[in-house]
Specification:
single chain, alpha+beta, 12 helices
């Protein structure tokens, strides 16, 4: 089942009510009721004890499990009527106003949020007035997230202009989104109509995004297990070592790697694994003098040959080459 951050939040809120009404519930029964695996449920239960009625501490959910049954030890204490403190009211109002400005938010949701914010301002009194002098600005990724989340909930196709660091180019493509997830960065997994294959897109590399009227109909796919990370090279995948200068340190951010050792000149020695080492030749060409493939030797030689061919092709199109051509 595709799960995003909003789905998980809704599930955990429902889980609190469900467990309060069913003391000693069995893990297997609760997981089945929510349509999730037992491991996913245990993961939620690990988070809930860090939640409560105040972000200043105290009144946290006292929930534990032995792997078979779940106990909630303080449901009555947490169920007491809430009274927002001034700092809590301010934080909540500032966050609500910021979310209401997100591009891609459904208009009905926006209007509901505006109405709820107005009621909260009235209840908060002076705290509400003080919060109006504060504001939050989201990074551009927030707008992309909202559009993707909306596309998933409405089952609509997306159009993207997407930057690929491996090819150093922007491509336009249509994608049927499947899910949002976070592994260091926030990603969308979807069925790419350009490549006719499942692809993963990092949201901060989306240059432009539009919701299309076409329905999203990705094929039935088994969701990847991301518990061990986004990129999980196979043990038999060849190892590649690349050395980059200070101008090539960005490679460690854009390419998943096993290690990145500091070099005396401020560069990095990056070790990674890939099922297709030849695909890194383009990276070597892009790096130019700021990087080189060290190992395996055959790939290093191949990259140097590709660089010589590229240089020869460039020289054949220069002014001198034009003068050498027969008239």
């Amino acid at each position: 089942m595709a799960t995003n951050a909003i789905d998980q939040t809704r599930r955990m809120l429902s889980l609190v009510t469900y467990l309060r009404e069913r003391p000693g519930a069995h893990v297997q029964d609760v997981a089945r009721a929510f349509g999730i695996t037992e491991d996913e449920l245990i993961s939620d239960l690990d988070v809930l004890p860090m939640c409560g009625t105040s972000f200043r501490g105290g009144d946290l959910l006292d929930i534990d499990t032995d792997g078979d049954r779940i106990w909630w030890h303080n449901p009555d204490d947490v169920a007491e009527p809430l009274r927002l403190a001034a700092d809590e009211a301010t934080a909540l109002l500032v966050a609500a106003r910021a979310v209401a400005t997100l591009p891609g938010l459904r208009e009905s949701d926006r209007q509901a949020l505006v109405r709820a914010t107005a009621k909260l301002e009235t209840a908060a009194g002076e705290s509400g007035a003080a919060s109006s002098r504060l504001s939050v600005t989201f990074e551009s990724e927030g707008g992309v997230f909202a559009d993707v989340d909306r596309a998933i909930s409405e089952r609509r196709r997306l159009w993207l202009r997407y930057y690929s660091p491996a090819r150093d180019e922007l491509t336009e493509r249509e994608v049927d989104p499947i899910r949002l997830f976070a592994v260091g960065h926030t990603y969308m997994e979807g069925w790419c109509r350009l490549s006719e294959a499942r692809r993963t897109f990092r949201l901060d590399r989306v240059a432009e995004i539009r919701l299309l009227d076409a329905p999203a109909v990705p094929p039935e796919l088994e969701l990847r297990d991301l518990s061990a990370g986004l990129v999980q090279p196979a043990a038999e995948d060849p190892e590649v070592v690349i050395e980059v200068g200070t101008g090539g340190r960005w490679v460690a951010e854009y390419y998943p790697h096993d290690s990145a050792e500091e070099l005396p000149d401020g560069g990095l020695r990056i070790t990674l694994r890939t099922p297709d080492p030849a695909s890194l030749r383009r990276l070597a060409l892009r790096l130019g003098g700021e990087g080189r493939i060290v190992d395996p030797p055959a790939l290093a030689d191949s990259a140097r040959e590709a660089a010589r061919e590229a240089l020869a092709a460039y020289e054949d199109t220069g002014p001198e080459a034009e003068e050498r051509r027969p008239r």
